[in-house]
Every structure is written in C-alpha cells, then in structure tokens.
TrEMBL record:
This is Chaperone protein TorD. It comes from the Bacteria. Pfam families: Nitrate_red_del (PF02613). InterPro entries: DMSO/NO3_reduct_chaperone, TorD-like_sf, TorD/DmsD_chaperones. Keywords: Chaperone, Plasmid. It comes from Sulfitobacter dubius. Signal peptide: none annotated.
C-alpha cells in the first residue's frame, strides 16, 4: 500500500478491505495452523455476520490443518471436480472460461491488476475476486478506487453470483469448517450490495 493510501483510507474502508482480504485468503487454499489460530481468536455479535465469525472461531479452535485440507479438497477439488465450482463463469453460464472471465480480464487490465505468477486458477475464482476488491479499496497497487469504481466492479463481477456461491458453501454437504465462511461471505455480500445501492457515486 502506498503511503498516500495508508494515510487517507477511512477506518470503515480499511475494515472492508481487511474482510475482503481475509475471505480471499481463506478461500484460496486450506488454512495452515497460523490462520486457524487467527480464526479461533475472532469474535462477533448477534448479526448474521457476527454469528458467522463466532461459529468460525469455535470450529477453528478444534480444527487441525489436515482436517481443513481434507474438507477444502472435497469442496473445491475432489476427484475430477469438487462439490462446488467457485467461478463466476460457471455460476453465470454453467461453463468455465466463458464471457464473465473475459469481461473480468478487460477490467483487470484497465485497473492495472494482473494474476500472480504463482496462481494458475482462472481469475474469476471467488478467492481472486475477494482479493481484487480488497486491493482496490486499500489502494494496494495504485490509488484507492473511488466508491463509484468499487461499485462498478462489485456489480459487474461479484454481485451477480457471489451471494449464491456463499449460500451454496454454507449449505454444502461437505461444509463443516467452511459453513460459517459461507455464512460470513453471504452476509458480507448483502451488506456491501445494500451499501452500494444506497451510496451516491463519487
């Protein structure tokens, strides 16, 4: 993050960016012991989002990395494919590598975002989109995105399908540790969608 971004970012936006980055991290691969310990230290209130954090904390305190990895593989990898395919193209068209991915790549170029050299998943993976949104809010690669830019990116690439994916993750047959991750994501997407709906672009 640039020094300018660090000094001008509002606290609310920093927290939003942190949550997007957390979702990107926990969905990008099985959590190691350090991430499980961090999850175990989370707390929440009585809101849907807060209840998700409390449930995740309880599960993380008694989950081992091997168990989390086994669950992650059943959900997202499996033999041939996992229970869920966490890609915008699949959720919006029923197929991978379709128009939603092409549209995302165009917007990534326009915003100066590119796939990391060690990442081989299509860019419309839910983890990548969460990370991109966090980076845009925090200004990790350039100036922080304006609210209008965030709204446009969210409405184009996240809003049409992410809530559905997170609801599927929450209720998936193989979801135990990841069920509250789905709950957190579903609640967060609802909050973001409503905030953008009520916002005045700037």
């Amino acid at each position: 993050m640039t020094q300018l971004a660090a000094t001008t970012l509002l606290e609310e936006d920093r927290l939003r960016a942190d949550l997007y980055n957390f979702m990107g991290l926990i969905l990008s691969g099985p959590p190691d012991q350090m991430l499980l310990d961090q999850c175990a230290g989370l707390s929440g209130d009585d809101s849907d989002l807060g209840q998700g954090f409390k449930a995740l904390s309880r599960l993380a305190s008694r989950t081992k990395p091997a168990g989390a990895e086994s669950e992650f593989n059943r959900l997202f990898i499996g033999l041939g494919r996992g229970e869920l395919l966490p890609y915008a193209s699949f959720y919006l068209t029923g197929f991978l590598n379709e128009k939603p991915l092409a549209a995302l790549r165009q917007d990534m170029i326009a915003r100066g975002l590119e796939r990391a050299s060690n990442v081989f998943e299509p860019e419309d993976n839910i983890a990548s989109l969460m990370e991109m949104m966090g980076a845009m809010i925090a200004g990790r690669f350039s100036a922080p995105a304006t609210l209008a830019q965030q709204k446009t990116f969210f409405n184009r690439h996240i809003a049409p399908w992410a809530g559905h994916f997170f609801a599927d993750l929450e209720g998936a047959k193989n979801s135990v540790f990841y069920a509250p991750v789905g709950k957190i994501g579903r609640a967060f997407m609802q909050i973001e969608a409503e905030a953008f709906r009520l916002s005045k672009d700037n």
